[in-house]
Amino acid sequence: MPTPAIETRDLTIRFGGHVAVDAVSCAFHAGTLTAIVGPNGAGKTTYFNLISGQLPATSGTVHLDAADISHLSAAARARRGIGRAFQITNLFPNLSTLENVRLATQSRARSRAGAAHGLAGTLRELTSRWDRDTAVRSRALDYLAEVNLAEKRDVPVVALSHGDKRKLEVALMMALEPHVFMFDEPTAGMSVDEVPVVLDLIKRLKARGDATILLVEHKMDVVRSLADRIVVLHNGRLVADGAPAEVIASPIVQEAYLGIAPTKAVEAALHG
Fold first, then answer.
1. Interior/surface letters 3-32, b for 16+ CB within 10 angstroms, e for the rest
2. What is the pLDDT of residues 199-223, one digit of tens each?
């Protein structure tokens, strides 16, 4: 078995007396798309936050290419190759779409400078090189074209629709060239017309064959169309892990999503 691209071992976080993620051990390999599902409050986004470094774990570890990265900040993990798109967009609202992607593209090329000078210093340095770095600008335009935003290159982010902001965030993540892509409900709040663009982007990333993709998603039709594997969290615990058809049909998922009364075996898996 090859070394997992990303792995959690007994990953746990407590908020007071509440255990939001409870000793979750799971490995994710390159070339696969894993959907992480579960009812509201199951711990999915918290689990993502622990992997990407937005939250410190109470116990347990996170490993990237077998290296323990539990001690690293979110920024350091991003530099190591973990890309994250959030439920709430995380963009520079007063800059144009092109400037947002250009900063991400140039940050990737000069990540060591970013580590040395911090975010504010990085923004000043990167902006000063804008006119001199036409190759970076060209790549940024390519990423915008991939998410169908090239015609809005000069539009300030604050003026974009919610769907366009989600697409822009995907472009930023692509510009950082991670090898682990983490999507937290990427279609949330999008119109029916906007959803296929983002799903097509994820499909294209998957088709490359070298990316590790983690997807938190409530829409089971989206999960069915994209996932190679489904992991189910319930009350912070990993309760199912397997092929989509098998997991979707399992009593555990039927209970978690549909409220169907569980058998004793399912009850034990959910609460034991």
1. ebbbbbbebbbeeeeebbbbebebebbbeb
2. 888 998 899 889 999 999 888 888 8
Count of domains forming the chain: 2
Q: Residue 97: pLDDT above 70?
A: yes
How far, in Å, CA of 205 to CA of 31, rounded? 9
pTM: 0.81
Query: Do the bridges between strand 82-85 and strand 67-68 make them parallel or antiparallel, or are there none, so unpaired?
Result: unpaired
- The parent domain of residue 19 ranges over 1-81+178-272
CB 186 within 8 Å of CB 166 = yes
The span from the CA of 175 to the CA of 164, in Å, is 16
- At residue 91, the pLDDT reads 85
Residue 183, domain member (yes or no): yes
Share of the chain above pLDDT 70, in %: 83
In a domain, 89, yes or no: no
- pLDDT above 80 for 259: no
Amino acid at 125: E
The phi, psi pair for 55, rounded to 5°, reads: -130, 140
**Shared domain check, 75 and 189:** yes
Residue 199, domain CATH: 3.40.50.300
Specify the 3-state DSSP secondary structure of 209. coil
Closest listed residue to residue 137, CA positions, set 153, 149, 119, 114? 153
> In what helix (H) or strand (E) does residue 229 lie, and over which residues does it extend?
strand 229-234
Question: Are 193 and 72 in the same domain?
Answer: yes
